[in-house]
């Protein structure tokens, strides 16, 4: 049986980084949120802006998200981004009641020659509106789907047992101090 040529690339670029993230002890909830956020921002309908958006989200959220997971998910979502531009455009047109932007070769010719600048700007705004309306749902659905997956992966691949909560860690630390002081 032959291994497809893209498998080494897939392992090197996606599977290995994901396993490294999991083995470093990240929490499943944080990973699920970070990956859902990275994909949601990664399907933003203007190509090339997603890395900037993810960087802004990482800076704003700080320790509540896992930066490498957000960026890996953004990288993975690039092909999905291209496939969702038209659905976001159509959703934005429906929501705003705007005119239907024709996706024909004649329309493409007008766009390339600069004759359809107003229509192109409106279509970009419609696509942005479609993404703005859909993004909370995308984020929530991805989080719900990814959380059990990351719980399983962290349980399977994490070398150390994860602490159940920071409060329990603090409690055990004070208990150790009390015991040391008693001696």
TrEMBL record:
It comes from Macleaya cordata. InterPro entries: DUF2062 (IPR018639). Residues 18-155 form the DUF2062 domain. This is DUF2062 domain-containing protein. The keyword Membrane applies. The lineage of its organism: Eukaryota, Viridiplantae, Streptophyta, Embryophyta, Tracheophyta. It holds the Pfam family DUF2062. The chain crosses the membrane at residues 31-61, 120-146. Keywords: Membrane, Transmembrane, Transmembrane helix. Coiled coil: none annotated.
């Amino acid at each position: 049986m032959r291994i497809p040529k893209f498998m080494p690339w897939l392992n090197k670029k996606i599977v290995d980084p994901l396993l490294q993230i999991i083995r470093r002890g990240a929490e499943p909830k944080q990973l699920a949120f970070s990956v859902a956020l990275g994909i949601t921002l990664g399907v933003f309908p203007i190509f090339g802006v997603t890395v900037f958006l993810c960087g802004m989200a990482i800076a704003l959220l700080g320790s509540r998200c896992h930066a490498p997971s957000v960026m890996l998910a953004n990288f993975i979502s690039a092909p999905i981004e291209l496939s969702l531009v038209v659905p976001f455009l159509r959703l934005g047109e429906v929501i705003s009641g705007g005119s239907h932007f024709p996706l024909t070769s004649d329309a493409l010719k007008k766009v390339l020659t600069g004759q359809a600048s107003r229509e192109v700007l409106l279509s970009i705004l419609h696509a942005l509106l479609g993404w703005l309306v859909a993004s909370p749902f995308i984020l929530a659905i991805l989080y719900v789907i990814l959380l059990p997956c990351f719980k399983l992966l962290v349980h399977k691949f994490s070398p150390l047992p994860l602490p159940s909560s920071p409060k329990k860690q603090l409690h055990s630390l004070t208990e150790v101090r009390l015991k040391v002081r008693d001696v």
